[in-house]
Amino acid sequence: MATDYIVGIDLGTTNSLVAFMQGETPVVIPGEDGLNLVPSVVALDAANHPIIGNSARNFLIETPERAVYSIKRLMGRGIEDIQEELKFFPFRIAEDLQPGEVLRIKLGDKTSTPPEISALILRQLKRNAERYFGAAVTKAVITVPAYFNDAQRQATKDAGRIAGLEVLRLVNEPTAASLAYGLDKKQNGIVAVYDLGGGTFDVSILKLHDGIFEVIATNGDTHLGGDDIDNLLITIALDDIRGDLGVDLRKNAEAVQAIRQAVIDAKIALSSQNSVKLDIELPGGKRYQREITREQYEQLIQPILDRTVGPCKQALKDAGLKPEQIDEVVLVGGSTRIPKVRALVKELFQREPHTGLNPDEVVALGAAVQANILGGGSEATQNMLLLDVTPLSLGIEVAGGVTDKIILRNSTIPASATQFYTTQIDGQANVAIHVLQGERELAKDCRSLARFDLKGIPPMAAGIPRVEVKFLIDANGILSVSAREQRSGKEAEIQVQPSYGLTDEQVESMILDSFDNAEEDFRRRQVIEARNEAETIIAALEKGRMSPAWGVLTSEEKKQIAKMEKSLNAVKAEDDYQAIRKAIDALNQGTTRLAELMMDTAVSSALKGKNMNETDLGEGPTAPHPVAKAEFE
Amino acid sequence: MTNSPTATIHEKGAALSCWSCAAPFGEGQSASFCAACGKVQPAAQVDYFAFFGLPRKLNLDVKPLEKNFYELSRKLHPDLSARASAQEQEWSLQQSSLLNDAYRTLKDPIKRTQYLLHLEGVELEEQSKSATEQARASGEMKKQIVPPDLLEEVFELNMQLEELRMQKKMGEDDPALIEEVGNQKLAFETKNEALLEELQGQWKAWDKLIDEGAEANPSERSQAITKMVDVLNRRNYIRNLLRDVTAVMES
């Protein structure tokens, strides 16, 4: 059986990584630039080719309208959810967006959905892995924030599909991290994972028991992370600049990006230094300078850090545990490098947190471990099994707009619930079901997942049909619904209208789109290669004209060759690689006698005492027929 | 790997032998997976007790249940069938969700009791749901029947709660009242714990009846059920009351 590589991918708000299990150890696969982190930045170059990662970062400053970052914040969300984001992020929403349509972002002169943009990042990671293995990669485990809801998970899965990856499993980021940590520890106990990344915060409490990683409780905030610190610092800088220099740069995208880069550098520096000096060149040659001390910085970010306290306390409460019952605390995510965050965690869990593994890489490493488990395991992962939970309660809307919870949060997944429905009027054939996710009492305060329409209920008197509807949350945390009318035994048809997601057909067409692009890429490459070959044969012909063999040809032969050369030159300018190849072929045929004659000349020169090398076999028509090397499909 | 999934099915829907290696299943054995070849089997219609091979008794030691849960997870979890056929993956999904649902229900004393009552034909939730819907239809507040022995205390607590609510609205703060409500809350929490103990006493009576045989003492059985329903209803009432108290105090 051919080796089937399953990679683990951390699709992050700020950075993304791909890792796999090399023997007994998970390793991160570097990109072409040798770096492990691929910034989650997507840009379109002047020719509308997507550029991903480090090379896309320059676009953020130079042509901000052709670049997008932190796209993860928009995954699985509707326009009404992201008003807050739009204040701080330069997302340009498509103007022709219809109500109920999946968000589309303007990137250059194209518009794309968040899953499509994420798919470009995934495709880059896929390519990095393929280059590393020298083989195709089609299967992956992708991590998601534990607190991602159904729509956000589905959007991530869609992104994988669009990128040409079969997503074998979505794993929660903190759980993945615990797998990476657990690999070499192999001990029993209660572990808390505090994961503060670029855009999301998760806390998970796990029970480790002889290789079983059982999540007991999880909580979080899918819109809380290092981005919020950046935005706070940017706002302060912009206010300062307006006050001191009297210029309002809020609408100046390039200046904002320059400030953003500067405050990020300052933020990072303040994790190791006691003070940092911001010095930013502004449009018009002025400079913005300001010193920030660690103390000031910590005061500024305290309200952001405090937002992680509630979820931690709730997770402990849900787990039925006191802080002193936690055996170990693990830190994950780049933002946990901030000393103040570490101090907060220490205080919350009354324990010195673990920082053995690189907080930027640990999630990807854990994803690689899970990929290995799914691929059949190895000695290192033998006996390891992950039992995760659903982060949010699943409910259905009942009379009066109230949520009736049918699967409670922190239930181990897969999990299911069965509900029975009947009809209100005689002969009623349809029943509508509104599925929600969240903890609030009223349906309007919960997340709408989908509206299901049970169809084809056999005509019966009101209240007689008994439709059994089964809600099933799979190991990815994604819901599926099936229904059966019990009296007739008829499988009821379900029509799903996802509230915030792509339909299967849309995803399919997006896969085709990227496939078309692949075709386009392939075609373009063929044209370039054919042109190069045409150049080679034309150059070879030039040399042939100089050789004594040229004089041997009849004038008719010379005329024919000139005609074929002319037509090759003509098609060479066009984009039809097949036509170029045809013309090359023709010229190739037409110059066969010339090539033979030149060979003879070479041979006779050799007989005259010159050696082959001196006859310049290395290039030009003196070499065996130049075109003989080319192979045509 | 290419075995077509055929299985001998008896009238209850449970297979008598493994679809893959044809090894026969023993009588009364939980056949979520085949003991001979380890393959996950199609999910049968079994109740949560039967899934774990347990009698319908309420005094349940959670430790061995947890051990059993872990062992079965190692057989049934979808991670283990990630490379198997689509059909096997589907069975694994069904079986492990059944396992998780069963474990979640049985490990919790209240959920376990409610589930047993459901198996015995009592629908506590349905009762409460239809009461809620009726109340909504008539536009009235849902009336919960106050357990008679709690009447006096509940009345007093509700009065105080109303006062506290008013004060909070006015932005006033009466530490004495808050303390009084807090004490009442504590008293009800203690009552709830006592109710759990009372319930555990009833488990013993129920389990004894189970030991005596399936159809023994039908009248005692229905008495035991009635008692448990009563305790659960009272407990439920107090729980809702406590939730209201917490809501007001934290508002």
How would you concisely characterize the structure shown here?
The complex is a heterodimer of chains A (633) and B (251). Chain A is an alpha+beta fold and 633 residues long. Chain A is built from 16 helices and 27 strands.
Topology:
The complex is a heterodimer of chains A (633) and B (251).
Chain A: E1 6-11, E2 15-22, E3 25-28, E4 38-39, E5 41-44, E6 50-52, H1 54-62, E7 67-69, H2 83-88, E8 105-107, E9 110-112, H3 114-133, E10 139-144, H4 150-162, E11 166-172, H5 173-185, E12 189-196, E13 201-209, E14 212-221, H6 226-245, H7 253-269, E15 275-281, E16 287-293, H8 294-306, H9 309-319, E17 328-332, H10 339-349, H11 362-374, E18 385-387, E19 394-398, E20 402-407, E21 415-421, E22 431-437, E23 447-455, E24 467-473, E25 479-485, E26 490-491, E27 493-498, H12 504-546, H13 548-552, H14 555-572, H15 577-590, H16 592-607
Chain B: H1 48-51, H2 62-76, H3 86-107, H4 109-119, H5 124-138, H6 151-170, H7 175-211, H8 218-250
